[in-house]
Fold each of these.
Amino acid sequence: MKLKPKFKILLSSVLALNFVSSARITASAENSLPQFSIRGGYAEENAVTSVIASFDDEMNIAAYSISVNFDPQQLEFVKAWDNIEYGNFYYNSTSDDCVTFVWSDSEDRSFKGDVFNIEFKTKGETSGQNVPVNVGYSIMGNDKMEEIPFEAQGCEISVSSIYKWGDVNCDGIISVSDVTAINKFNIDSEEYSLTDEMLINGDTDKNNIINSDDSNAILKYLKTSVTEENLYE
C-alpha cells in the first residue's frame, strides 16, 4: 500500500531520532509492491494464540512502524517479540484495539520472512468465529529518508470449539500416533490427508502451518512434563 508523500518528514524523524511515527497506508492496485502480511492460525475460546508478521518479499529498510488493529471484544493483546538480531524494537499499546510495533536501525537491513510475533488472548463467546486482525496506520523507510511503499494484508484467527491440542488423529489421547500422522502428512498430503479437525489439533503453535515444529512439540510434550505454554521456549 502506497504511503502519502506528506509523511516523508515523519520518516526523517524516525531515522534521525530512532523513533517512528505512524502514517496511513493507502491501497495501490496499479503497481506490484512488496508484501507485508500477518498470518493467523487456530485458537480455543479464552486461550492464548499467536500471529506472525512477516515480509513475503525481500525489502531493504532502516525503520518501520506498523499498527495492528483488532476488536477488543474478541481479542486482548498479551505481548510481542521480534525475530531480528539488530536494531531496536518496541511496541506501544495506546488503546485497547490497536498496538503499534516499531523497529529502527542506523542503516538499511535486508528483510524477508518472519519479523515479529504477537500474542493475543481470545475472549468468551468467540467460538466458531473467524476473528480479524488488520494492519492499520503504518510506514517504512530506508536510511536515505525515503519512504518504502508496500502492500499489507491482515489475517483471521479461527476460534474453534473442537480444538484439542496435539490430538491429531482425534482418538482422545496425545501419543506418538499423532506425531506419525503429522510426519506422513508432510511427506504426502494427498495420500495421508487430514480432516479439518485433525489440521486444527495438529497446528500446535497455532500459526496455520502444519510442519515438523508441530510434531516436535508433541514429542517434547510426551517426553517431558512441560506444559503447552513453554513448549517453544
Amino acid sequence: MSSGLSDSPPSTDLAPAQDTEVQTFRISPLIRITLLSLYVALTTPLPFLAKMTAAPIPAELLWLGIGLGGLALHAALSEQVVLDDRQIQVTYPRWVPRFFWGGWALPWSEIQALKPRSTGQGGLVYYFLTTSGTGYLLPMRVAGFAQLVRVVEAKTGIDTQDIRPLAQPWMYLILLGLTVILLLIDGWTIGTILSLGRGT
C-alpha cells in the first residue's frame, strides 16, 4: 500500500517479557459464533443441491472444500491480542501455520500515533503508525475492546477516547438472527432433497 500502512508482520517477532502483567484478548464469542454459523448456513446445502441436480462438481469435492474453508475461517477467528509492558502482539494458536496467518509484534516505544482509515462500508479502522512510518492494523473485533484501548492509551500516551469498535454487538445480533432463519430454511431444503431422493 502506497501510504505505508499494512497489517503484515514486522521483521522481528518479539516474545512477551517475563515477570510482567500479560493481558490476552480474543475475538468476541458473538462474532465467532455468528460468522461460523453464517458459513455453515451458506455452504451446507451446496453438496445436496449438487447431487440432486447432477452438477459437474462432485458432492464429495464440495464437502472437502467446505471443510477446508471452515478450518480456515476458524483459524482466522482464533486471533489473539497479547499486551504486556513491552509490546502489543497479534498471534494465533500453535496449530495455525505461520505461513497462513503469521501475526505481528510491535513495541510500545515504536508507536507514534493511531491513524484512522475509512472502509468501503463507511466505517473506520485504525492503524498503529510507527517511527519508521509503517502501519499495523489495530484489532477491533476482540472482546474487551474498551479495556484494550485503555491499555494502549496508558502505554503510548495516545488519546483513544474517540475510538470505537468497528461493529456494534447489536449488528452481529441481527446477523445472527438472520442466520438462524437461513439455517431453518436450509434444514427444510435438505429435508426436501432427501425426501425426493428416497422417493426415486
Amino acid sequence: MPSDEYFEIGYHTDRFFELEEDLIKFLRFMPLEIHNSSEKRERVRSPYLADLLIRIGSNIDIFFRKLILSYYIDIDNERKIQKRNYLSFNDYKKLDEKFLKRGTKLSGCNIKIIQTGEYLNPFKNWNIETPTWWTSYNHVKHEALIEEANLDNIMQSLAAFFLLICFKKNSAKLVQYNYLCVLPQFRNEILSESKEELIHDIITKIFISPVKS
C-alpha cells in the first residue's frame, strides 16, 4: 500500500483497533484492575502476548517508515547518503523534533490507563535511549525470547501506537471506532468528510490521549 494511502484511508487506526481488541480478550483473564503496576504486569508472560507484541511492534515500524517516506523524506535521504539499506529506530527518533502536535513532542506525552488511573510515557527519553518495549519486541521477534513478552511491554507498546494514531489522526476512522468524543449530530458529517473535525478528546477502551484530535 502506498504510504499516502495508508494514512488517507486510516489503515493505521484500523490496525490499532484490532490490536486493542485482541489485548482486551487477554485482559478478561488478567484484568488491569488487579495488575495495576508495571511490576505486576512484568510478571505476566504468555505466548499469546509474544504474538501480540510482534504485531504491535511491526505496525509501529510500518507507521514510522510510511510517515518518513510520505512527509519527512529528508530523513530517508540522509539514510541513503550514509548508504544504509533500511531505516532504523535511530532514524525514527529524529521525528520527535518534527512530529509535533500543538507544540507537544511524542517524548512529552503521558497516556492515561482508564482501568488503573496510571500514566504511561512510552517515548520517554527515546532520543537518548531505546525504549524497553521496543528492545523486547526485537528480542521476541528475532530471538524468540518469549520471557520478554510481558503484559507491561504490551501496554507500553500499544500506548505508543495509540499516541501515533492520535498525532497522525484520521477523524473518520476515530469516529467509526467511537474513539472521538463528538456530539452525535456531527458524527455523520465527519464520517462523510463534509465537516472538518477540530479539537476533541480521543478515548479508547483502555487509553485516554494526552493530546486532543
Amino acid sequence: MSAPHIREQYICIKVLEGLSGESSAPHSSHWERSSTKGYSYGAQFEGAGMAETVMCKGNFGVEYKVLLFRRLNMMIKELIADLDWGKPREIQENAIRRLEEIDDEDIVLLAKQSNDICHKGCWQNAAVVLKLIGYPRIKPVLPYIMQWFQDINWPGVYTIIEILRDAEPLELIPYIEEASKRAIIDKDGLWALGIVFLLEKLELNHRINSDLYNQLVCLSNE
C-alpha cells in the first residue's frame, strides 16, 4: 500500500518580503519552492496543518518570502488517531504499518506531544512508528523527542530510549544538552530527572558537560 502522501496545495497566509506594498502573492500554482526555512504546528489556522516560511519563485523568476500554510489531509490525521490504544488492535496495527511510510516532513506529527493530532493515548504507538522509521530519518525531530523525557512515566519513553541507542553519541549529545539547558531554565525537576534517566540508560552521563550534568542531578533531587 502506498505511503499516505500530502497532496493539498500550499495556501499563502502572508507575504513577508519581496512584494512591496502588497498583501497577496501569485496563485500557488505559479510558485516554485526554492528553500524551506522551517515549519511548526499551525493550530492557529483553520484546520490542522503546517505553517512554513519559504522562498518562492513567482512569475519572471521574482522571489518572494512568504508564510504558507499546508493543510494536512484527512488520511494522516485519521491514521494518527487510529494509534490510540483504546482502538481495536487490528486498527492500531494497520495505522502503525501505514505511518511507517510517512513523508519525512510529517514525522514531526508523531514526535511532538500535546497537540490535537497525536494525543497522549497515541504516544506509545507513535513511539513504535518512530522506531520503525528509525535513525537517521528521525534526526530532524530530536528536539521534540527530547521533550518526551519531561515525564519518564509517559507512554513511549522506553521505546524512545531504544530508538536513541541507534544514534551516534556525538550527534545526540547536543540535543540532550539543549534540552538540559531548557529544563534548568524552566526549573523543571521532572524533566531534569528524565534527562538524567536517559543519560544513564544510554551510558552518556560522563559524555555531556559535567557542570550541566551536576545541575541536572541537583534539580532532579529537589
